[in-house]
Amino acid sequence: MPNGVGRFGRLSWLWLSMLVLVIDQASKFYFEGKLEMFQQIVVIPDLFSWTLAYNTGAAFSFLADSSGWQRWLFALIAIVVSAVLVVWLKRLGRNETWLAVALALVLGGALGNLYDRIAYGHVIDFILVHWQNQWHFPAFNFADSAITVGAVMLALDMFKTKKTGETVHD
């Protein structure tokens, strides 16, 4: 096979996507049962809290105030992106482990938030990072964290050396 691509590429990394999905859903189930809406449990004073929030929009609550159509738009986008990621994983070669891990993390996070959108009409968030009550990052969840780590890994992969050993230049 060319470039060491096997019949199933790096689909074996789907276990990581499923692990992200399971941890994400279990943590959402736990915090939704433990917290009231917007209740905070301070973990590290002036820095980190658990809090329950629902997001009907996308990242940073984009389109959260819309009438509900965004639920299905974001679900459709997640389905398309997930299909693309699975095909991409299948086409990866044996030496592309970093990229396989990155794609598996993004896929697992996308599936976690997709499940929420379809099942509940919103994404369940419970992690709040803040600074001395002066500002806070929007609440997020384990799926969002996996997507972010995977996206950073994808970005870093663009700067890795090419297979010939040459560094990517402008």
Write the layout of secondary structure elements.
Blueprint: H1 14-34, E1 40-44, E2 48-55, H2 69-91, H3 97-120, E3 123-131, E4 135-136, H4 142-158
Antiparallel strand pairs: 1-2, 2-3, 3-4
Helix pairs in contact: 1-3, 2-3, 3-4
Distance between the termini: 32 Å
Q: Estimate the global geometry from the Cα principal axes.
A: globular
What sequence of helices (H) and strands (E) makes up the elements? HEEHHEEH
* Helical content (DSSP H or I, runs of 4+): 40-55%
Count up the helices: 4
Instruction: Enumerate the strands of the largest sheet in spatial order, edge to edge or round the barrel.
Output: 1-2-3-4
Number of strands: 4
Using only C-alpha atoms, the radius of gyration works out to 18 Å
Helix-and-strand structural type = alpha+beta
- Give the rounded overall mean pLDDT: 85
Kindly estimate the percentage of residues that lie in beta strands according to DSSP: 5-15%
Low-confidence segments, ≥5 residues, pLDDT <50? none
Please outline the major beta sheet.
Answer: 4 strands, antiparallel
Describe what this molecule looks like in 3D.
This protein is α+β, with helices and mostly antiparallel strands and 170 residues long. The protein has a domain at 15-60 and 68-130 and 150-158. It contains four helices and four strands; from the N terminus they run αββααββα. The protein has helices spanning 14-34, 69-91, 97-120, 142-158, and strands at 40-44, 48-55, 123-131, 135-136. Strands 1-2-3-4 form a four-stranded antiparallel sheet. A hairpin with a 3-residue loop joins strand 1 and strand 2. Helix 1 packs parallel to helix 3 and helix 2 runs antiparallel to helix 3. The protein is globular and about 50 Å long. The protein starts with 13 loop residues before the first helix and ends in a 12-residue tail after the last helix.
